[in-house]
Amino acid sequence: MEGEGCTVFTAKGETVRGSILLEKASSHVYGKAVGDTLRDDENMEVRLDAQTVSKEDTEAMGIRVGDFVAFDPRVEITQGFIRSRHLDDKACVACLVAAVKALSAAGVAPAQDTTLLISNYEEVGHGAAAGIPPEVAELVAVDMAAVGSGQTSDEFHTTLCVKDSGGPYHHELSQRLRQIADQVGIPYMVDIYPYYGSDGEAYWRAGGDVAVALIGPGVDASHNYERTHLEALVATTQWVVAYLIS
What we know:
By secondary structure, this protein is of the alpha+beta class. It has two domains: 5-71, Elongation Factor Tu (Ef-tu), domain 3; 76-245, Zn peptidases (Aminopeptidase, 3-Layer(aba) Sandwich). It has helices at residues 27-30, 33-36, 55-60, 87-106, 171-184, 199-205, 230-245; strands at 5-9, 15-22, 44-48, 68-71, 76-78, 81-84, 138-142, 145-147, 158-164, 167-168, 188-193, 211-220, 226-229. Strand 9 and strand 10 form a beta hairpin. Helix 4 crosses helix 7 (230-245). 28% of the residues are buried. The model has no long low-confidence stretch (mean pLDDT 95).
């Protein structure tokens, strides 16, 4: 996040622009220390675009402990690629919205009663610990697929995750999703992520007792300046539609 533009949201509803920087950021002043300094909470700061030189000046602007700081996503679409921060998991929200709009436009209803849950707290691990209706019989989490060395996932495919840091997902539901994709001709990958968790596992840990599976588009550089491709988003959307009407 070093060098990113950001916006501070104050408790009064005002916003202040700024940047995320190393406190000793100038190599002309601090020399070798700029490269040697750890990028951690002790050495990073929000440089506000405001005339402030003290705690009192900053507080007079309405800024307090607990104010939210949002990083600029820096969205760019080029040659079918989408580059942005926070594609995990805004990319999958887009897939769900597109799937519902497609079904509505076609006048087609899901084969079963369906609930869509978009959980703001997914990234901190307890997003789907609440909010799932008790009558739910199975849960398909739609989340990004991590791309990197040793993985089968790539930016051009949707992916079925069969196991991650929380253990294996429901084998029968995963197999059914594979069969659905094969039947309608959706190209996909199958992968395992050792440092990854999903809303499905949060639901399980909260006491949910249903089948859970996980699909999603391949995203490169997860939790960094991420990138995916329209082909992966379209395939994920098609998979969601095919599952809902199956």
